[in-house]
Amino acid sequence: MLERNIENFIGCESSYEDADIVLFGAPFDSTTSFRPGARFGSAAIRHESFGLETYSPYQNKDILDYNIFDSGDIELCFGSAEKALEDIQSRTRIILNDNKLPLLIGGEHLVTLGAFRAVHNKYPNVHIIHFDAHADLRDDYLGAKLSHACVIRRCYEIIDDNSEKRIHQFCIRSGDREEFEFAKKHTNMNKFNFNGLDELVNMLSIKNVPVYFTIDLDCLDSSVFPGTGTPEAGGVTFVQLLEAILKVCKTNVVGADINELAPTLDNSGVSTATACKVLRELILGLN
């Protein structure tokens, strides 16, 4: 059984036993390729969430009406990406074994790999829906296989099923040529926007297959969300992201994460406030 965190995301005050969704943070950014600071994202989201209401006028739902538990941040090893991933996988496994939905707050995007390992162990036919500015399909980054630039490639290797493309990517607008060539063969990639998401959601809902949902917040335009390590112009608006999140939540989501907020890179605090609102809407969409 997990213990409640000292400072929770607003409204996430259920007991662990009663909870349907369990939040946990992975404050890790040791493989960040440009600007560091994502390790501070999960703590900032919790702290700044008290500038929000628990009620969402977008969905006419209130977090207080649901059982959400916040188990706090994992204390992660910064000297070893693999050790950090093992600890994230272990926390995710505990939550899944107790038949609850794990909701991970990063941290850089590599943290997804630890959670996805545990989800795939329980749901081997799982699909991934991936929102991001970057393809994250590099085989290595400067010789490192464990990098936030490689995370979806490592997830693909876990799935390892060429009979069906089970990774679905949206908003992608950055990557090297090899990544886009790899995507043509091995993933369903939609560049720049959410075109095709309605059809995907309908297909996955009909099949009722498990879905892991990962949101790199730099899918948002850098004018909306500058507080991230690798900002990319040409992204989506908050409202477009919200609409897409609510569509994905119609599928059988069995695990999810948001990542890549680097709060110290946006002194205005707007990026952190936006991340808080994304998390609130994701929590409510999953209920």
Q: Figure out the total of helices.
A: 8
Shape: globular
Q: Give the domain tally.
A: 1
Find the structural class using helix and strand composition.
Answer: alpha/beta
Rg over alpha carbons:
17 Å
Which CATH architecture would you pick? 3-Layer(aba) Sandwich
> How confident overall, as mean pLDDT?
94
Summarize the amount of helix as a percent range: 25-40%
Which stretches are low in confidence, meaning pLDDT under 50 for 5 or more residues running? Answer: none
Could you spell the SSE succession in H and E letters?
EHEEEHEHEHEHEHEHEH
CATH class: Alpha Beta
State which percent range the strand residues make up: 15-25%
* Number of DSSP-assigned strands: 10
CATH topology: Arginase, Chain A
CATH superfamily: Ureohydrolase domain
Please summarize the sheet with the most strands: 8 strands, parallel
This entry's quaternary arrangement is single chain
Would you give an account of this structure?
With 287 residues, the protein is α/β, with parallel strands linked by helices. The protein has one domain: Ureohydrolase domain (Arginase, Chain A, 3-Layer(aba) Sandwich), CATH 3.40.800.10. 33% of the residues lie in helices and 18% in strands. Strands 4-1-5-10-9-6-7-8 form an eight-stranded parallel β-sheet, with helices on both faces. A two-stranded antiparallel sheet has the order 2-3. α1 packs across α8, α3 runs parallel beside α4 (151-159) and α7 packs parallel to α8 (270-285). It is globular. The mean pLDDT is 94.
